[in-house]
Amino acid sequence: MKHIWLVSGITIKEGIRNRVLLGVLFFALVMCAVNVVVTGSFTRDLGKVAVDVGLSTVSISGLAIIFFLGMPLLAKDLDKLTVYLVLSRPIARRDYILGKFIGLNTLVFVSVLILSVITAISVKLIMGLSPAYIPPLFSWTVFAMAVFFSFLSLVVMTSLSILYTCLSSSTYMAFIFTIGTYLIGQNIELVRTLLKQANPEGSLTLSLLSAASWIFPNLSAFDRKTSAAYGLDFHWSTFGITTAYAVSYTLLVLFITVLVFNRRELT
Amino acid sequence: MKNLAVTFAAGFLVLVFYTFSYLGLQGARHEMKADIQASPLFNLPEHVTRVLALEFKGLMADYAVMEAGSIVGKKEKLTDAEWKAVERVLGHAISLDPYFQQTYMLLQGTVPWHTDDHEMTIDLLEKSRDHRFWDWIPGFFIGFDYFYFLKDNLKASEALMAASSVKDAPPALATFGARLAQEVGKNDTAIAFLRMMLEKEKDQEKRDMLQERLDAHLAVAVLENGLAVFHAKYGKNPERLDILVSSGVLPRLPENPYGKPFIYDNATGVIKF
Amino acid sequence: MTAGLCQPSLFINNRTKFFATSEHMQISIVNLNKSYKRHGEKRSPVISGLNLFIEKGESFGFLGPNGAGKSTVIKILMNFIRSDSGEIEICGESILNSNVRRYVGYLPEQPIFYDHLTAEELLRYGGKASGVQDDSLEERISWLLDRLNLSHAKKKPIRTYSKGMTQRTGLALAMVHDPDICILDEPMSGLDPMGRKLVADFILDMRTAGKTVFFSSHILSDVERLCDRVGVLNKGKLLFCGPIDEFKNLTGDIERSFVSMIENDNRGRG
Questions:
Q1: Which of C108, C121, C157 is nearest residue A81 as measured by Cβ atoms?
Q2: A4, A10, A74, A107: best to mutate for the C interface, most C CBs within 10 A
Q3: What does the DSSP 8-state code read for residue A68?
Q4: Contact between B62 and A52 using a beta-carbon 8 Å cutoff
Q5: Which of A2, B77, B138, B157 lies in the 20 to 30 Å Cα band around C144?
Q6: Pairing of strands C47-55, C212-217
Q7: CA angle A245-A247-A250, nearest 5°?
Q8: Residues of B contacting chain A (CB within 8 angstroms)
Q9: Which of A149, A187, A197 to mutate to test the interface with B (most CBs of B within 10 A)?
Q10: What CA–CA distance (Å, rounded) separates B161 from B191?
Q11: How many of the other CB atoms lie within 10 Å of CB of B169?
Q12: Is the distance from CB of B164 to CB of B171 less than 8 angstroms?
């Protein structure tokens, strides 16, 4: 266990001093100012627009950290072989993967936390300026749940990005796979629904999609921005099962990653 | 010295070239601007934009509403094609986020008054109504559109009465819905509906309004009954309502709670209050 | 400065075929084979039938022309890549067990580190990871940085270091846990004469302290100075393994011995 913390420690240190993180945070602050401006162009449901912009900023920033900070760090480990730093010590390969996973997610968590606080402040500000135009059911609980789910989505994406980096011989391919999985994951549920409506009796495409939905993460399940914007009902049972899905999927991906990485030649 | 002069001259020439081409481009773009077009993104089918929007559907809906608003606001009179564009963009907005109030407000405030696409407007309003379970306004707009533009009082009254059951809906919805129902000969429905609303309504002021309306409908029911009896007896409608009393069909004429006389058309037998 | 002593007698070694007791044998490579497969077909082997035994306390130079497979052997020793077959042990334990690297200090051919860490942070991490106790760690880090002339830069990020400083940082990292075995992959490559002297002095210090040093090189003059025994690898085969004097005496000159041995082997392969 100690080894996992050591690896996550150097990952976090290296990540935090990277300028990309500063850039992301700066972007987030800019977006909060933009939020106030954008919301001003609307006259109804201002709270919802503010939440839309705010939560989207949280999601985009998290993704930016995965793609512009996390994956380059991992890529450098395997291309430039800075991974020797870790594996020349008495640290098992499994501990390297877990340490990286925890380290990268800590970076993501910190930025999600900072961004969601800034977003919440800007949303509160906007709502304070025009209280008549807030969706009547708005609730900070649902807002917090939506932020948490965004984070879960990012955790899933982090684990996949680590898997793809370990699987591919080229970091370029790992990028493509990760982006592709993100796009598929966001839409697989929607496409299945649309196809079912078009072909109620079923079709080959639908069966293939059903099979694929076991493999690709259903990221749309973690997208609760609309619920947060309007304060829509968010049952604890849904909350529980979605969290369980995220955790189990991530564990599965990590398990496969450890197996893959154990066999990978580092040269 | 010569090198410096050459450098400056070259730099100056490049600047001049750039200035001319910049101004030229501005002019060319200006001509293009006159033709208002929606972003090509919204020429795609609605489910495609939903797919493209990934997890940012709310944001894209906001953008769509903004775009629709800017098309509408650009000039006094829009062409048919431009109104079609507005409808298309608002359709996308509703598909991406059917909860957004500004979408239906913009829709109702502009499209039905400038186009004949009322069925489409009502379709979109229905989506908003089905999602915004806390909001009576979309239902009200649907009722209004049926009543005012499509002159379909039956559908209007259905929509209004459905809308009036939403929490905090003003009682006027119920009363207006009931009035429309009565005007298409569905007075019993109106009475039953108002009785149900009275049962649910706690606020005294609203109860008084509902009761007043109910009394009006009950009075009309009595008169309609009387007309039926008279018609059965004499084979035609009476000239005036007071003939119902003088002929012995009714003991007396019921009172109009609004204080005005009933409006009676002896040709059709329709009674209005 | 004791941390992590190798105690081979604690590990039971069944392999008494080649040598009497495992106490002497720090590194044991038996019948190592490695080839890189491309698209299912085997290419010509990178290492074939390698047997190599390094004794405790000796300084062993691993020679060979470029592409002979020296780096590959070292990477297999460090479990960065897998052998196709063969049994490899350090201090009597299989190299597949990560614990083995507690006793090993490794310096890669081109040390690259996380740019934004400082030398101090890096050494702290390395020491902790290899099991050095906290109280002795700080002292050890200061001593090492001083010894390697890095104290002035210890709080600066490694990306600001020169190549020589990076190499010295690599050496410090390899030594922070006072390992019994040092495995150095081409430690002098790309260094200026000052840098080479520093590394050479280091290896000599290790020797004096009774540590085992295993390093690969193609700079023969260094090898002559620093080694007790040498091994010569060409195209994956071990051509010679024995005392440095014995090798030199083959032709009277170490360079001639090396060149003729390689040329003969190449001719033999046709």
A1: C108
A2: A10
A3: I
A4: yes
A5: A2
A6: unpaired
A7: 105
A8: 47, 50-51, 54-59, 61-62, 65-66, 69, 97, 99-102, 105, 134
A9: A187
A10: 12
A11: 20
A12: yes
Q: What is the DSSP string of C109-164?
A: SS----TTSBHHHHHHHHHHHTT--HHHHHHHHHHHHHHTT-GGGTTSBGGG--HH
Q: Which chains have 3+ CB pairs within 8 A of B? A: A
* β partners of residue C34: C47
The pLDDT > 90 percentage for chain C reads: 55
Per residue of chain B (273 residues), give pLDDT as tens. 788 899 999 999 999 988 888 888 877 776 555 555 677 888 889 989 999 999 999 999 999 999 999 898 887 788 888 999 999 999 999 999 999 999 999 999 889 888 999 999 999 999 999 999 999 999 999 998 898 888 888 899 899 989 998 988 888 888 888 888 877 777 887 788 778 778 877 778 778 888 888 898 899 899 989 988 998 988 888 888 888 888 888 998 898 998 888 888 888 888 887
Contact: B134, A190; criterion CB under 8 Å: no
Residue C22 has pLDDT above 50, yes or no: no
CA–CA–CA angle B265, B269, B273 (5° rounding):
60
C75 and chain A: CB distance < 8 Å anywhere?
yes
Which chain C residue is nearest to residue A95, measuring alpha carbons? C98
Rounded to two decimals, what is the model's pTM?
Answer: 0.83
Angle at A41 between CA A39 and CA A42, to 5 degrees: 70
Contact: chain C with chain A (3+ CB pairs below 8 Å) = yes
Task: Concatenate the DSSP letters of all residues of B179-237 into one string.
Answer: HHHHHTT-HHHHHHHHHHHHHH---HHHHHHHHHHHHHHHHHHHHHHHHHHHHHHHSS-
* Residue in C106, C112, C125 closest to A6 by CB: C125
Structure tokens given for C95: 């190299």
Chain A CB contacts of B57 below 8 Å: 223, 225-226
Q: Which chains touch C (3 or more CB pairs under 8 A)?
A: A
Tell the burial category of A137 from Cβ atoms under 10 Å away from its Cβ (0-12, 13-18, 19+): middle
Strands C59-63, B270-272: pairing is unpaired
The pLDDT assigned to B37 comes to 65
Instruction: Choose the mutation target among A78, A89, A262 for the interface with C, i.e. most C CBs under 10 Å.
Output: A89
A229 to chain C, closest Cα gap in Å: 40
For C207-240, write each residue's pLDDT tens digit: 899 999 999 988 888 888 899 999 999 998 999 9
Residue A223 contacts B, CB cutoff 8 Å:
yes
CB contact under 8 A, B102 and A183: no
If you compute the radius of gyration of chain B from its CA atoms, what whole number of angstroms results? 30
Residue C38's pLDDT is what?
A: 67
H helix runs in chain C, sequence order: 70-77, 119-129, 134-147, 163-175, 193-208, 220-226, 244-248, 254-269
Say which amino acid occupies C161. Y
Return the SS3 of A186.
helix
Amino acid at B55: E
Q: For residues A175 and A168, what is the distance between their CA atoms, to the nearest angstrom?
A: 10
